[in-house]
Amino acid sequence: MNSPELAGFLRTRREALQPEDVGLSRGPRRRANGLRREEVAELAGMSTDYYARLERSNAPEPSEQMIAAIARALRLSLPERDHLFQLTGHTAPTRAQRSDHINPGLMRVLDRLHDTPAQVMNSMGETLAQTPLAVALLGDQTGFRGDRRSNVYRWFTEPESRFIYPESDHERLGRVFVAQHRAVVTRHGSASPAGALARRLADQIPEFAAIWAEHEIGLIHSDDKRLDHPEVGELSLHCQVLLDPDQEQCLLIFTATPGTESYERLHLLSVIGALQLNESALLD
């Protein structure tokens, strides 16, 4: 690990970012150039002390997962992300179909949706980033590991993942998940991570195997979503999708029609979510 170069790179990229660039309030007493270290650490999900040590050149080598989190927190471009990996002594990830690195432009849009449920997902159905209101609406989907990262895997192996959707929609949604996953396998081949996941599911889950054997393709999710939230009840939402074809990622934005019951319930959920975040922060 090239600690001095790493420290300088992190510091300059941190100072180049403004609070507004990552959806934070500037506040009246800010003196720091760019973001504070604690703000970057919070965005990356790590301790402030460890991040500060990276900038002081006296931290142990970070894991690849931690490097990826720092790259997202600092809104690095792909070349900058690769450079960060190399400075820490790791091989830069292959720019392949399953990248966890979010385009900085897409992240800037997400940062400005602090009062809206929105999340970034990749072609494997893995959620890479969520707004707080998306967490309140759909649950925290960014902490899963292994196969559980993929929504198609959770759909067929964890019945509780279906509870937020009306039971009458379950069959259709399952078929859409399978058809969309088949499209990913077709694009990237049976030897890809998507192909390996499909084989594991087909071997283990009869329901998935039966739908997979029908070779359905081209099914898509409806723009209009029906959700049954445990705290606020039924919601009818519109889902707008912004695509980043280069990264094979999409930004999902959920909105409700103003004046409707769903609009009022979504507002209530934002209040509940904020209270839960404050309680969690106090416990931490």
Features of this protein?
Beta-Lactamase; alpha+beta; 2 domains; 434 Repressor (Amino-terminal Domain); 284 residues; single chain; globular; 12 helices
User: The CATH topology of the largest domain is what?
Assistant: Beta-Lactamase
- Helix content class: 40-55%
The CATH class name of the largest domain reads Alpha Beta
Terminal CA distance reads 31 Å
Secondary-structure element string: HHHHHHEEHHHHHEEEH
Strand content: 5-15%
Would you tell me the overall average pLDDT? 87
Count of individual domains: 2
What does this structure look like?
This protein has 284 residues and is α+β, with helices and mostly antiparallel strands. The chain folds into two domains: 3-87, Orthogonal Bundle (434 Repressor (Amino-terminal Domain)), CATH 1.10.260; 104-283, Beta-Lactamase (2-Layer Sandwich), CATH 3.30.450. Helices cover 47% and strands 12% of the residues. The chain has helices at residues 3-16, 37-44, 48-55, 64-73, 78-87, 104-111, 132-138, 151-157, 170-188, 193-204, 206-212, 261-283, and strands at residues 118-122, 127-130, 224-229, 233-244, 249-255. Strands 2-1-5-4-3 form a five-stranded antiparallel β-sheet. A hairpin with a 4-residue loop joins strand 4 (233-244) and strand 5. The two termini are 31 Å apart. Mean pLDDT is 87; it is low at 280-284.
